Amino acid sequence: MTFDRYAPHLRATLALGLPLVGSHLARMAISVADTIMVGWYGVNELAALVIAVSFFNILFFLGMGFGIGVMGVIAAAIARDDETEVRRSARMALWLSIIHAIVMLPLLWHSETILLAIGQAPVVAELAQDYLRIAGFGLLAVLCQLTLNSYLAAMERPQVVLWITLAGLPLVIFLNWVMIFGNLGVPELGVEGAAVAAIIVQFLQLAAITAYAAWLPVARKYHLFKRFWRPDWAYMRKVFLLGLPIGLTMVAEGGLFVGSNVMMGWIGTRELAAHGIALQLASITFMLHLGMSNAATVRVGQAKGWGDGGWMRDAAVTVTVVSVCIALIAVATFILFPRALVGLYLDVNHPETPALIDFATGLMFYAALFQMADALQVIALGLLRGVQDTRMPMVIAGISYWLVGIPVAYGLAFVLGLGPKGLWLGLVAGLTLAATLLMRRFWRGHARGDWTPAPSAV
């Protein structure tokens, strides 16, 4: 029976994917807490946080390819019982993550000049730089966390990462309450307080994940941290060539959303704040798909290591169907409960709140429109990374997001005068094209390839 064929894959996918989803959601919840609490503090500060986080994320996306790309390599190496490749690839991914974080610091430190150059309001640009000059030091922590998360996920041990990430949520809420608003005798720091809280939590989480990766019995044979300071230039080059296209792909996709933030800033500060709320709600559902995409990378990477094409196709079908079901639930939620969701972010007593809720609620319909395309494109990327196909997806992302998505958004918003709605329709256009081309590449390419089946257990 069909169900009997896919049931083992479903169980294995959920066992691996749900902790990864939980980790991404917990990480997103920390960002949501920042947005909500800064939103309670002030509209200018909220707009500054939206643009600052967008700036930070672009640099994060560029560097996260090393951590994400190594996931499929490690999964395939474990399937082949190649301890050397596991150790060397994971170690050099950490090296590259650290190097990237250091190189990006000057851009974060001088971000006000860049933000002013792209048309942001002076008060927003100044506050955003205040945030980034502190939060920028957390780039190293989050990139190394991501790499270790991939290392553990490839071993099908993502559960502790979930608990470590969840533990950071109440801590960041408490630190935000203290530092943003000046409670318990601490000076009132506003948006800078959110940055201080963020880096404290990020480095504590990195310390905990590092300790777990070093302690985990199943991982001890890989000796990841033994003589960590010794470079391995051959594997560094391999991870760099695999990870850079992934980073550029993430920049292309993230740039689509950052571009929409920048263009919304041209329209107005209030509109940017409302846009940030709607976009973050959409980003929460994206975290669900991202977790399943990570599971797809591991499952397909295992199949590649075993050389079993039928197993790969069944695993790919399973994870795609799961993500489609999640997208359908998200569409229904955004359409049925938009005002309730938006209202969580704002102080009901603030005089600007009613207008912000009305504006952001109108955008939630467009957030619902791209849910399915967003789900399919990120799942397709996960499948392709599992077979270590990263260069053509980079090209597809560049075309979809920068030659279609951004121009369509600008044309509809400013040339045809649709304003904010036009920007969101541009997002829909870019994501839909990317989903179509990426899924086509996997199913008409790798999923149809010649394979030599090998005995394996789900």
UniProtKB/TrEMBL annotation:
Taxonomic superkingdom: Bacteria
One Pfam short name: MatE
Membrane topology field: Multi-pass membrane protein
InterPro entries: MATE_fam, MATE_MdtK, MdtK-like
Keyword Ribosomal protein applies: no
Major location (coarse): membrane
Location relative to the cell: Cell inner membrane
Name this polypeptide is given: Multidrug-efflux transporter
Species of provenance: Paracoccus broussonetiae
